[in-house]
Specification:
This protein is α/β, with parallel strands linked by helices. The chain is built from twelve helices and twelve strands. Strand 3 (89-96), helix 5 (100-112) and strand 4 form a beta-alpha-beta unit. Helix 1 (3-15) packs across helix 2, helix 1 crosses helix 4 and helix 5 crosses helix 12 (289-306). The longest helix has 25 residues, at 59-83. It is globular.
């Protein structure tokens, strides 16, 4: 038995699919299946029953997963203790969605601690990775982005995994494009206006607990005839600026960033789907001064954006 085996088993149980778990763990499916089979052979236990929809836990599997989650949590607690034991260094691990208001809050926080020795991991990714990082990989703090009508399901899951949460805000995506985009001066946008233009999307946009068919409800980008998939958020502003027939859906963005990149945001009158950004961190975890200031900065920028101020 090793820690990696336990992580694999817990992840398969969490998503109910070996294929999906392999994607989340950045493994190929045969290797992940082999890991489970070797564990089952070594201990003479059957963990999962395979079916056409994926896998379900056996009674023995449920007990193994319960114990494995306890071991993973205790290992993460030890990692956090050792990671934060160096009093001269500020050690922080943050996993967040791709969002300009969050990155600005992060920069403002780092600037406030610029005279300190810093050891920081700031990871921008999707919900699945964020949940894995905070629940399994020893990250101290995360922000997940939840479709509003799935909020109760997510919060119930987070609570069941010995995590606590704090809602930041509820918002609707806006359309982001160049000041030179043909629609930049149009007063009211609707979905039909956008269909003939290329939408910019991140290549890993998927939502845990939601089928590929249901995702279309939460991502109006699927209505566009042309798509450009990107991996890194850093390239999106350059692409939008230099290709004025492209657009993307975005959270509210500080005005200074829009001005610097010569971009504009507009509401889409057809877009009724709202999202919530929610802080998550381990239960009974004591936030560091850096993390507390980061959260304060996130809320400060959020309030400024809600009030139409030039958040910086």
């Amino acid at each position: 038995m090793n820690y990696q085996q336990l992580r694999c088993i817990v992840e398969i149980a969490r998503v109910g699919s070996i294929t999906k778990a392999a994607e989340n763990l950045y493994m190929n499916q045969p290797n992940l299946s082999r890991t489970v089979i070797e564990f089952e052979k070594e201990y003479g236990v059957t963990l999962f029953i395979r079916n056409s929809q994926g896998v379900i836990l056996t009674d023995s599997g449920k007990k193994v997963v319960e114990k494995a989650e306890e071991i993973i949590k205790k290992t993460n607690d030890l990692n956090r203790f050792l990671y934060n034991n160096d009093k001269e260094t500020i050690n922080v691990k943050l996993a967040v969605p791709r969002s300009s208001y969050i990155s600005v809050a992060f920069c403002n926080t780092v600037e406030a601690f610029e005279n300190n020795k810093l050891n920081i991991s700031f990871k921008e990714c999707n919900n699945t990775d964020i949940l894995n990082d905070v629940m399994i990989n020893g990250y101290n703090l995360g922000i997940i982005r939840i479709p509003t009508d799935l909020e109760a399901k997510y919060k119930k899951m987070v609570t069941s995994k010995q995590m606590q949460f704090q809602e930041i805000w509820n918002f609707k995506y806006k359309v982001l494009f160049s000041q030179n985009h043909p629609l930049a001066t149009k007063e009211k946008l609707c979905f039909n206006d956008l269909k003939e233009y290329s939408v910019l999307m991140h290549d890993d946009e998927y939502i845990p607990f939601v089928s590929k068919e249901e995702i279309k409800r939460y991502t109006p980008s699927h209505d566009s005839q042309s798509k450009i998939l990107i991996q890194e958020r850093g390239s999106q502003f350059d692409i939008l600026s230099n290709l004025p027939n492209t657009y993307m859906w975005t959270t509210p963005i500080p005005k200074t960033l829009l001005e610097n990149h010569k971009l504009v945001t507009k509401k889409c009158i057809d877009n009724r789907q709202s999202f919530s950004d929610v802080l998550i961190y381990p239960k009974n975890y004591t936030l560091t001064d850096f993390e507390k200031l980061f959260i304060e900065n996130v809320f400060e920028i959020k309030y400024a954006l809600e009030n139409g101020e030039n958040a910086v």
